[in-house]
Amino acid sequence: MLCHMENHAPNLDTAFHALADPTRRAILGRLVRGPTAVSAPAQPFAIGLPAFVKHLRVVERDGLITSEKSGRVRTCRMNAPQLVAAETWLARQRSLWQASADRLDDYVETQMPTGPDDAQ
Amino acid sequence: MLCHMENHAPNLDTAFHALADPTRRAILGRLVRGPTAVSAPAQPFAIGLPAFVKHLRVVERDGLITSEKSGRVRTCRMNAPQLVAAETWLARQRSLWQASADRLDDYVETQMPTGPDDAQ
Lengths: 120, 120
Fold this sequence. Notes:
2 copies of one chain form a homodimer.
Chain A: H1 12-19, H2 22-31, E1 36-37, H3 39-42, H4 49-61, E2 65-70, E3 73-78, H5 80-111, H6 116-119
Antiparallel strand pairs in A: 1-3, 2-3
């Protein structure tokens, strides 16, 4: 049985760990389109159900999805704050990198010797 | 010695693997501000140089940074396409999730029984 987890505070270590595998990313790629029963997401994958459930457990333990059992059906859904936290961290780094690259461009431009065209 | 790697095609498995550790994220947080010599990034971290170099090797093997040796100094720099690929994947998932959440809102609104205010 998959363990049931409540939503919890975003954790970048576990968020990125869950994302470092193609099957786990495919599970998330399915769940961003809406909640689904456990048996359903296994169908498009060329792996057996036990292997699939193992991946699902990792994604849930890592806090990117939650699951809830109602009768005999377990439904999985995205835990969006984890996804958003990971994206926000990356966007911030890319923004800093871009600012640094822009400063380098500015520096190169101001340090360039004037060419023949400029001297005319 | 750190192995020297050329820039390579983005790989989401290794990109997210590199990001799943706070020291490795801190290394990237330093390198987005510009290239730096190997000894320099170790200074703000409360870990020994051997542990630091081990983390650096993982980040390089995972393709998020490259390094180049000139004389006795090894300089590390971001491999931006890896960072951008990871961010782009996450942004796409968040966008799909948002669209799905918006559709659910629309559905709930159209299915809601009209309240007393609407009936007036």
